[in-house]
Write a structure and sequence with these properties.
- The protein is of the alpha/beta class.
- It has helices at residues 23-38, 40-46, 64-74, 84-90, 95-108, 132-148, 188-199, 210-216, 222-243, 246-250, 254-259, and strands at 53-57, 78-83, 112-117, 155-161, 177-182.
- Strands 2-3-4-1-5 form a five-stranded parallel beta sheet, with helices on both faces.
- It is elongated and about 65 Å long.
- The structure holds adenosine-5'-triphosphate (ATP).
């Protein structure tokens, strides 16, 4: 069923302000993807050719997927996501058909964004690996499809990787993934913004100091911060549960709900 499985078109709901930090990256994506999709006539008139393919690269958990979804949301484009490893493992023999189908759907659903996460899985440099033939064919198929996309057709391909160094150079030629954008690990200022995003709908006690948390979390990625915040919330829940009768908890009594406040200690 793999090749015939319906290509899933999503309409994501991630907005630019759901992404903490990365201000330069967001601005670059706005200009390179959002504007051309929203104002194709203006780009045509000005004679500017927007990029067809963009490669987001950087450490894991820094928001690459989030960025791709936000571009789709903010440009009101359809979103088709595939993962490199999935292409290889599940669609053996049918992968090329699958890739053709994805591009066909994307053209039909334009404006649309094809997001290829972990593209390095289908794109190890040609002639170096065991499954050489399979990846060769996949890469060729992908390149053919990308080359076939007309300028200003409303289809943009965004790929993500932590290993830009192992990609087949053919993918990076002009007209393909010719815009490379680094998505770096967050600095202290960006970490503060990420903490704000993830706690914005959370009942926080006065003693919670997000600046201090940002300072103390050197080396954390956005994904690490999201996990830390989730854990803190669970700690608050545990505290409330252990301090009340099982009945009060079971009924989600007012007393119980009132105790659900995340304190500084919950982050430790
Ligand atoms: P991978 O390379 O592992 O696929 P990625 O760079 O695509 O990672 P995401 O999947 O976008 O990372 O991020 C994972 C989760 O981490 C997000 O769903 C979000 O909760 C959180 N996150 C990461 N970066 C940010 C950010 N800049 N702002 C807010 N949340 C973030």
């Amino acid at each position: 069923p793999s090749a015939l499985r319906e290509v899933l078109i999503e309409v994501p709901n991630v907005h630019w302000d759901d992404i903490g930090g990365l201000e330069d990256v967001k601005q670059e994506l706005r200009e390179a993807v959002e504007w051309p999709l929203k104002y194709p006539k203006a780009f045509k008139k000005l004679g500017i050719t927007p990029p067809k393919g963009i490669l987001l690269y950087g450490p894991p958990g820094t928001g690459k997927t989030l960025l791709a979804k936000a571009i789709a949301t903010e440009s009101q484009a359809n979103f088709i996501a595939i993962r490199g490893p999935e292409v290889l493992s599940k669609w053996v023999g049918e992968s090329e058909k699958r890739i053709r189908e994805i591009f066909r759907k994307a053209r039909q659903a334009a404006p649309s964004i094809i997001f290829i996460d972990e593209i390095d899985a289908i794109a190890p440099a040609r002639g170096t690996s065991e499954g050489e033939k399979v990846t060769d064919r996949l890469i060729n198929q992908l390149l053919t499809e990308m080359d076939g996309i007309q300028e200003n057709s409303g289809v943009v391909i965004i790929a993500a990787t932590n290993r830009p160094d192992i990609l087949d150079p053919a993918l990076l030629r002009p007209g393909r993934f010719d815009r490379l954008i680094l998505v770096p690990a967050p600095d202290e200022k960006a970490r503060l913004e990420i903490f704000k995003v993830h706690t914005r709908n959370m009942p926080l006690a006065k003693d919670v100091d997000l600046r201090e948390l940002a300072r103390k979390t050197e080396g954390y990625t956005g994904a690490d911060i999201a996990a830390l915040v989730r854990e803190a919330a669970l700690n608050a829940l545990k505290r409330a549960v252990s301090s009340l009768s099982p009945e009060a908890v079971e009924e989600e009594s007012e007393e119980f709900l009132n105790k659900l406040v995340v304190t500084r200690k919950d982050f430790e």
